[in-house]
Batch of 2 targets.
Target 1
Amino acid sequence: MGKSAAVEAVARARGREVVLVIGSTLDPTDLGGIPVPRAGEGVELALPAFGQEILEAHDRTGRKPLVFLDELPEAPPGVRAALLNFLLNGTVARRRMPAIRGAAGNPPEVSIMGAPLNPAVANRLVHFEVEPDLEVIAEGFALGFEGLYGSALAPLPPEGAVEARIAEVKALVGAFLRAAPHHLLRLPEDPVLQGKAWPSPRSWETLARVLGASQALGYGREVQALLALGTVGGAGLEFLGYLEKLDLPSPEEILADPERLPLRDDQAYASLMAVTRYALEAPEERWRAAWKVLRFAAERRSQGDLAAMAAKLLIRAHGELKARGVVLPLGPEEMGPRIIDLGLMLQVRKR
């Protein structure tokens, strides 16, 4: 099973359509748009065929399709530059497309064109080096690839739980970089390695987002290691090792006893986000206890700014849960005077 077929199976399992773009078959005007005269108004750039496909797929499903740029390194230089611009900015013929974007190609050492990615471009991407897995391919032929990949996908959690986990990981990234500042920015000297994953403030931000989302989805160490390597290189594995050694109380322990909340602000922030994420996994059971922890942080620990950031996620999730028929209390008793003083009660009233 090829790269594009695997990506298509995963996308369909998530209810998204796929628009396949093969870079080696395109001309630069296919991406930049073809100038078309407009009566008395100069010219406009007409969308190329794949741009129309994106809009039609979005209109059919109401969801962003996945646009997969295959054979990206084999595209002619002019086309490659235009494809990279779309990959990074999502624009075609000067219009932003409603699309999720991904790309694939052969590594520089076996590519016909042989050119590594520009470092600035490479640092904005998550890189995966994939080799065929005989067992997966054999099982896919026997059972069907779409079902095989679909069964491996975790169910989607509430958006608030994902954002809380991302914020939690961001706080932990900050703590790690304080302990290992040499990992903040390390551009490799080898041009080939510059075209892969390496640590920078931008790629650490990316790591926090993809790692936090993967944890919220329940994926284990193997997936997290792939994501860490794919965003910041080997420093990502050091970060995962750091997390394993970090002795933070669990969300369950903090819910049972708010005094277990760490005193250090960076650790307290990560723990508050963990509590928020944990509460949203079973909101009907943990909602009130989560607000007690936030009130404790705001009123007893003078960590109101940290509690406010977690409270915003709970307030947003309250509206999402209500729309799904889960009605939970949200008022002065839950929020307490300190969090209300921070202006968050206004957000509740707007909802």
Target 2
Amino acid sequence: MYFCDKVHQLRIEAGLSQEAFANELGVPYETVARWEQGAEMPDMQTLLAIADRFGISLDALVRDGEEVSQHAGFSAQMRCRAPYEYKSRATCFGVPLVHVHLSNGTGRAAVAKGIFAIGDITLGVVALGGISAGLISFGGISLGLLLALGGIAAGLTAMGGVALGVYALGGLALGYCALGGFACAVELAVGGAASGRVAIGQVANGTHALLIHEATEAQMRAFMRAYCPDAGQWLIQLLTAACRG
């Protein structure tokens, strides 16, 4: 076991975050992150403080191969693969401008909260993560107030394998206006199979339905203008292009 593994293991077993541990030692939390990544070693005074904090000898702390805990779970293949965390000093209303928090894939998911947030689970104005939520969100599972992009996405404008939104684009799209392989909409649905008040598709089901293979682009645009007068020109052009794409 290497020092980077040891300091990470001891901190986790003590129930300390990188920030809390850094505060105890009087160092920036970024310094703790570098120790755990194996990118930097503490000075002698700090090493002594760490050893005292956890009740172990300095030799056990710094000598490679020495075990510092009875708890299992840190193999040789995991050397220095500690979670990575970066939190900017700049804040906005007390929230970090940037927060990056990534796990090593072997423990619990890392949570990031910031104006710009990147992590396993994220919450921010702009969020990127496995599970993400924000004003603008990108992730495996994505919830965005304005825009969501992900495997499963929900938001005002949603794009993904499964998309749910006012404007939805995806393999399976559900919304007020929807475009997708299978599109189901309250108002306008366009797709391979489309269902809505106004539906355009290879298979179309609706109060007003149009089959793509039976219509020209001009006819599709005219159809949408006639039965969806509130649809913007940009939306009509987009949906028409998608049908022909």
